[in-house]
Methionyl-tRNA formyltransferase (Paraburkholderia megapolitana), 327 residues
Amino acid sequence: MSHTLRVVFAGTPGFAAAALAGIHAAGFPVPLVLTQPDRPAGRGMKLQASAVKRFAEEHGLAVAQPPSLRRTGKFPAEATAAIEQLKATPHDVMVVAAYGLLLPQEVLDIAPHGCINIHASLLPRWRGAAPIHRAIEAGDAQTGITLMQMDAGLDTGAMISEARTPIHPDDTTATLHDRLAQAGATLIVDALVELERSGKLHNVPQPADGATYAAKIDKHEATLDWRRPAAALARQVRAFDPFPGGVATLDGTALKIWAAAPVEMRTDATPGTIVEVAPDGVAVACGEGVLRLTQLQKPGGKRLPAREFLAGSTLAAGQRFQLPDEQ
């Protein structure tokens, strides 16, 4: 089916690429795609195109990669050129998903129907950069996607629609990300169909109550603090898969912990002490309860199930992982 509503799309990672793919597959014309400049990545630190740019290029969509859209920022000339390009590109609405650049009011005002943002949380909970990670880490029972009419604030705009999903006990940021990316693609296509049909989208202001901020994940957060409860550490490990992983340091060697679960086991061992080494995992005493590590990785090695990891390692009961302030 073909549509006449013209959509400028702005986004960068895989989460955004799923939405762009949905919009494109539904037959909406996309006259321009904005995405972040190519970034060095991988072992060779070669410049790599974003997932959104790769999709756009494979499907013959025009791409712009300004480093900024703020005329008053560090790149005034590039920002001005991009704004002029947006103004010169006829379109009806702009859709934004995990773009990573601030959009000033001037940009929000270009499209006749403004900018619709696809945000990976049930707003106003988890405004900000890392809503998927933070929802798992906090132990939220559910999360979802909110479509929002963007304003100049940080994820403060009026809400158009939402889709909810439970957070399962074994969900990681990777699994939840993929589910939410698909939900976001479905939700935005439905909204664009409605916008084209009726010429407007109903929205309701976000409540101020219950607003929380999902700060970007920092590498230093990866270190597991064994004084915390086992249940909280298990959530941290799931939240930090695929990045940055949980880190446990033993005798100066930093091991990555990719999967772990709290277990019913009594111990009065000091937090961080290995209390059992078994094929089904390495049990470690925590501030409250015991955490069984079931998928581990040595520096330079692969992620391995505990059984395979232990075949090439000398972990033993009684050894103790270091606490963050001992490193």
Summary: The helical segments are 14-25, 51-58, 76-88, 105-108, 131-138, 173-198, 230-239, 306-311.
